[in-house]
Amino acid sequence: MTLDPKLLARLGPFPVRARKVMEGVLTGLHQSRAYGQSVEFMEHKEYAPGDEIKNIDWRAYAKLDKYYVKRFEMETNLRALLVVDASGSMAYGRGPLTKLSYSAICAGALAYLLSKQGDQVGLVIAGDPDPSSTERLPAGVRSFLPFGASALHVQELLQRLDTAQGRGPTLLAKALDFAAEKAGRRALVIVLSDLFDATERTAPALKMLRGRRHDVLLLQVLDREELDFPFDDPTRFLSMEDDRQVEAQPRQIRESYLEELGKFLDGTRRDLARADVEVEQIATDDPPDRVLLRLLARRGGG
To answer: Which of 19, 33, 84, 114 has the fewest Cβ atoms within 10 Å of its own Cβ atom?
Structure first.
């Protein structure tokens, strides 16, 4: 996959920040509540046995005749795990981009930015198994790339995104269970999916991730035709994940379809918001750079 240099240039000034406090090593742009020597002074506290003598503030001692030590807020390195839904419904797209290719562009740009600022990024592609793969992975996980931040690592991640194909049933919930296992301590988990899941297990799996104190962001990607239902002539609608099909008069069902879709989208957003899962609902005709700039500006402003 080749990322548009103009896209990267526009995104560059915005750091990718997790909303929640992260734990990690003393690198990167992200801040943790763990205290230790670092670059950012937090506050004084009275000296107690076991505190580092080198952190005593001698100016405070001269003024107050008491020993105070400086506490610092550690900066930490972020671990971000991208989870991309590669089920059959993600292959839909009547415009220049399918939902999966749109998601791959967004995921690739985020991976590039994260690695550029020294963060580790991993990738889970959710879907049925790839028969040609030598990876031994659980059901629901087509591909997994562990955390890394090197240029070669990002190139491998982009390659996997570029070759991902949308096929088979939605197995996102199983992939999220796997992601929870691999994310380790608190991490930023970014999920890209249309969330079309007949099992209704995906939303609980997203809540489970948040319950484990990960910062969870869902980019819910939909095609403009799915949002507007612009069909007029009698149409046979084919499922992209199984053998189901239905013939319908679009003009007769448009109103009820849009009503049900609205309930689904609004209900998803409200339900996940109650669990503190952030949801960004995106149409594939919205330029990816505009979407990511909006997202990064909101998250980077805190």
So the answer is: 33
